[in-house]
Amino acid sequence: MNFRLLRLSLLGLSIGIGLIGLGAYYIKNQAIHFNQDSDRHLPNLGGPFTLVDQFGKTRTEQDFRGKYMLVYFGYTFCPDVCPLGLRNLSSALATLGRDLDQVAPIFITIDPERDTVESLQSYASTIHSSFVMLTGTQRELDPVLKSYNVYAVKAKPDGTMADYLMDHSSLIYLMDRNGTLVDFFPHTASPKEIADKIHKHLMQEIQKS
């Protein structure tokens, strides 16, 4: 093989790898690139689910109708992103006062293989007591992840599946009393930002009534 052909081959390989990487980046980030203008045109996310909570009780989206749902997707083995998001959420919930009764915070696992009912119950003791922790089979969870446009795949940093991590999008979804998306936050949103947005939507509801 001459040098010119070798250079062309290497160039083609580099472009191919770059396109694969770009595609993966797009897939991972399309879940979080919502319109963030002041007049948000929010996507139609959310939908029905039938899962099991941390006490082994079957729960559906209908159980939370009449309340604002704060929905977060994550996993209990998450080393950094999920703990931060849940800590911010828990702190926000602690400041809501009487408005807390109007909100249902929901954690839905992206790692059903390890997030059993027992592990969710144990993890629930580390966050706000009002959280409903949900798990199910992968087959039950897949349509839920899809309905919220959640990105979640296993990551193998050491090339094995022994102690895998999950590479995932990390948004907090605020759904109204009918299950319609009305706002969202990154997991890095401060407790005040989250609480203020919840109060804002509750006040808008009162003003419209």
From TrEMBL:
Cu cation binds at C78, C82, H168. One of its GO terms (molecular function) is metal ion binding. Disulfide bonds join C78-C82. Signal peptide: none annotated. Keywords: Copper, Disulfide bond, Metal-binding. It comes from Candidatus Odyssella acanthamoebae. Belongs to the SCO1/2 family. This is Thioredoxin domain-containing protein.
